[in-house]
Amino acid sequence: MKLSFLLSALLTAGLGFATTAFAQDDSLVAQGKYLATAGDCAACHTSDGGKPFAGGLAIATPIGNIVASNITPSKTDGIGDYSEAEFARAVREGVRRDGANLYPAMPYTAYAKISDADIHALYTYLMQGVQPVDVAAPETKLPFPFSIRASMWGWNLLFLDDTRFTPDPARDAAWNRGAYLAEGLEHCSTCHTPRNFLMAEKSGDALSGASLGTWYAPNITSDPVHGIGGWSVDDIATYLSTGRSDHGSEAGGPMLEAINKSLSHLSPGDIHALATYIHSIAAKAGQVAPGDTAQAAPLDDDVALMNGTASAGANLYADHCSTCHQAGGEGGNGLPALLGNAALRRPVADNVAMAILEGLTPRDGLANSQAMPGFGQVMDDSQVATLTNYLFAKLGDAGVQITPARVAALRAGGAPSPLLALARDGMIAAAVVVVLVILALLIWLLRRRRAA
Ligand code: HEC
Ligand code: HEC
Ligand code: HEC
């Protein structure tokens, strides 16, 4: 009797303990899953049609394809043998369990800001919430000298700031949470900040706008004219979760991808925090449109179109665009206006040409929304340029123009695009430059020795 009581008491206590531990782990797994979405880990670590996190996706970089690792808890082919400390070192410092350097195609430069607590949750999720997949990801084979992983130490020396995020005590909790997410897991600056000749972000011009080779990531500082100074915190939050704003912006290209895969899954609190932080970014003019004046009058070619005296641009607009955007560009019936559209206030015409070439889809699952078809098949490069230039002349800044050659480059996926490569592939291009500079320095030193 006594014994059975003791046993059952022990059992109950044991079970109780087990349940609590399980519940704790459960919420930790859920938290880790959420953070993995914020950091978009699955986007790179899952191959097309492959099992989640099993790796194998080849990421194209200027120096060759870099294959994302299997990060499932498989003991044979994944990170099953990683301790939490080894995992933290890989994610924040770019060093693998065996001590080899990772290529910065893995964005450890941004993830360096991740806190210990969030690393713990990410680790718990990957170890307990993800199915192990015992299939090896193909090996990365780069040409010499990049095949030597140790060549990354020089690059890290120059560009890896591996300090954790430190909260600003003068700001409130929402601002600090937003800054933590924006600078770390969400890394907004990889796209929105212009870079210097060594491909490092110009911190003094943070978030003031940069070209990604095809799409232009606009100025999102608080500059009232060139940035989003006129947007409220709520306007920014709405855009980050829906891809739309009342300021004439509809997200396309890489921003739409970020919204679909990551931002639209964040909690309202985190979206609000991100918006609070972005709203506070000091104003910078960034790259400015030449004339810097936006026209405010609707298109008015009706009479000329009837007389047959309208310009080529006006004819293209009437033939392909006015059914949805209306004759004057006012939009309506849920379709956006081109009059006052943010795409026509950019310092470059690329995003308008990209929208015409590829079309534009609203965020996944957004209610009551329509898509714009692409016209890349029905219009040639010079027609796209003529139409784009017509719209800028009439509704935007007449000084902003695009050439058929530039349209051809956009159609082909952009001119060689260090920035997109940097955003997606984490600054590999910079590594090339740094290796070359170091080599040049060594040769120069050797020559001087010989001369002496
Ligand atoms: C932009 C693409 C990209 C994203 C996003 C990304 N990774 Fe990676 N990751 C890579 C690539 C590529 C490698 C392999 C690099 C190499 O072989 O040098 C890698 C390697 C790793 C490794 C080392 C595994 C090993 O032994 O080879 C870990 C751990 C890892 N990633 C975890 C994460 C986590 C956690 C996240 C999300 C917070 C994440 N990654 C997001 C591209 C990415
Ligand atoms: C992969 C590149 C990329 C990343 C990462 C990215 N953006 Fe963007 N962003 C863009 C591009 C490109 C556009 C222009 C889209 C368009 O006009 O169709 C844009 C547009 C915007 C706009 C609209 C500005 C306007 O004037 O219309 C805001 C606001 C914005 N981004 C905020 C952010 C924030 C905040 C983050 C981080 C949480 C972020 N972006 C991350 C590429 C990116
Ligand atoms: C079938 C209707 C339809 C037609 C035809 C159409 N559009 Fe659109 N357009 C849209 C919709 C819908 C959006 C907003 C999509 C979204 O929310 O992502 C849009 C957005 C745009 C934008 C904003 C791009 C940005 O990055 O914010 C521009 C510029 C544009 N259209 C120009 C044109 C031009 C030029 C034509 C003619 C070649 C055209 N559209 C034809 C429906 C249309």
UniProtKB/TrEMBL annotation:
The chain crosses the membrane at residues 426-446. Heme c 3 binds at C321, C324, H325. Pfam families: Cytochrom_C (PF00034). Keywords: Cell membrane, Heme, Iron, Membrane, Metal-binding, Repeat, Signal, Transmembrane, Transmembrane helix. Binds 3 heme c groups covalently per subunit. The keyword Iron applies. It is found in: Cell membrane. The keyword Transferase does not apply. PROSITE patterns: CYTC. InterPro entries: Cyt_c-like_dom, Cyt_c-like_dom_sf, Cytochrome_c-type_DH, Membr-bd_ADH_cyt_c. Heme c 2 binds at C188, C191, H192. Its cofactor is heme c. Residues 1-23 form the signal peptide. Heme c 1 binds at C41, C44, H45. Residues 27-130, 173-282, 308-395 form the Cytochrome c domain. This is C-type cytochrome. It comes from Acidisoma cellulosilyticum.
